[in-house]
Design goal:
Layout lengths: L5 E5 L6 H14 L7 E5 L5 H8 L5 E5 L16 H6 L4 E4 L2 H5 L5 H13 L3 E6 L3 H5 L3 H12 L5 H4 L3 E4 L13 H18 L2 H4 L3 E5 L7 H5 L6 E4 L6 H8 L3
Parallel strand pairs: 1-2, 1-8, 2-3, 3-4, 4-5, 5-6, 6-7, 7-8
Helix pairs in contact: 1-2, 1-12, 7-9
Bound molecules: 1,3-dihydroxyacetonephosphate.
The site of 1,3-dihydroxyacetonephosphate (13P) has 14 residues, from β8.
Length: 252
C-alpha cells in the first residue's frame, strides 16, 4: 500500500512575521496543484498564527511547530504547550530535531515526553533521529538510531504509531551541503522500517512515513524520493527560498 509522500519545510530560526507571511503565500501557491502528496511548514513560534491565516484554506499545506511541551499549562518558562499550538493552528510538531538534541541538550527521555504529550493532545509528531559523523565513522549508525527510536517512541500505542512521522536526519548532512547518498538513505530507511516492524505490527510499520532530511535541494530530491523507503523530505535551508521549495514539492 502506498504511503502518501510528505514534503516538510523546517524554517528553523528564520523569518519575521512579515517574511513568514510572504513565504507561506508562496508555499500555498506552489501547493495549489498538488493532489498526491502532503506539504508541511514549520515557521518559528512567533509567526504561527499569522501563517495559519494564510494556509488554513489550503487542502495540502499543514502547519507544524518546531517543538512542543508535554504539559497543557504550568510553570514551564520558555516552553509552548500543545493546547497553545493547536490554538495557533498547528496540527503537527517537530520533536527531537538534532539541533534540540545537540545544541540544547535535549535527551531521549525528554524527547519521549514531548512525543507522548503531542499524542495526548492529538498533534502529529514529526519525530527526528540521526547519527553524528563520529558515530557513523565508528560503525555505530544503526545502534544509535535504534536506541533513539526505541526510547523516543517508548509507550506509544499501535494506534498512535499509525500517524507518527519519523524523520531520519544524519547530523553530518544538516546544513553542510553534504547529502547522504541515495544508497545510504535507503539503507537506513529500510533498517528503520524493519525496526518499526519489530516495535509495532507490520501493517502499522508499513504505513509510517519516514522522511529524509539533511541538505535536501532541488537537485537531489528526485533521486532521494525514488527510493522505496524514503517517503518524504524534511527540508531546512532550501525551504526558505520559494522557488527551491516549489521544486522540491514537485519532486518527480
Ligand atoms: P538543511 O536542509 O538546511 O540541511 O536542514 C535540514 C534540517 O535540519 C531540517 O530539519
Amino acid at each position: 500500500m502506498g504511503r502518501r509522500p510528505l514534503v516538510a519545510g523546517n524554517w528553523k530560526m528564520h523569518t519575521t512575521i512579515q517574511e513568514a507571511r510572504k513565504l507561506a503565500e508562496a508555499v500555498v501557491k506552489a501547493g495549489a496543484d498538488v493532489i498526491d502528496r502532503d506539504i508541511m511548514i514549520a515557521p518559528p513560534f512567533t509567526a504561527l498564527s499569522a501563517v495559519f491565516e494564510i494556509v488554513r484554506g489550503s487542502p495540502s499545506v499543514r502547519l507544524a511547530a518546531q517543538n512542543i511541551c508535554w504539559a497543557e499549562k504550568g510553570a514551564f518558562t520558555g516552553e509552548i504547550s500543545p493546547v497553545m499550538l493547536k490554538d495557533a493552528g498547528c496540527s503537527m510538531a517537530i520533536i527531537g530535531h538534532s539541533e534540540r538534541r545537540h545544541v540544547f541538550g535535549e535527551d531521549d527521555a525528554m524527547i519521549n515526553k514531548r512525543v507522548l504529550g503531542a499524542f495526548e493532545f492529538e498533534l502529529v509528531p514529526v519525530f527526528c533521529i540521526g547519527e553524528t559523523l563520529d558515530e557513523r565513522e565508528a560503525g555505530k549508525t544503526m545502534e544509535i538510531l535504534e536506541n533513539q527510536m526505541r526510547s523516543g517512541l517508548a509507550g506509544v500505542t499501535a494506534d498512535q504509531a499509525q500517524t507518527v512521522v519519523v524523520a531520519y536526519e544524519p547530523v553530518w548532512a544538516i546544513g553542510t551541503g553534504k547529502t547522504a547518498t541515495v544508497e545510504q538513505a535507503q539503507e537506513v530507511h529500510a533498517f528503520l522500517r524493519g525496526l518499526l516492524v519489530s516495535m509495532f505490527e507490520k501493517n502499522i510499520a508499513t504505513q509510517i512515513r519516514i522522511l529524509y532530511g539533511g541538505s535536501v535541494n532541488p537537485e537531489n530530491v528526485d533521486a532521494l524520493m525514488s527510493q522505496e523507503d524514503v517517503d518524504g523530505a524534511l527540508v531546512g535551508g532550501a525551504s526558505l527560498k520559494a522557488e527551491s521549495f516549489d521544486r522540491i514539492i514537485h519532486f518527480q
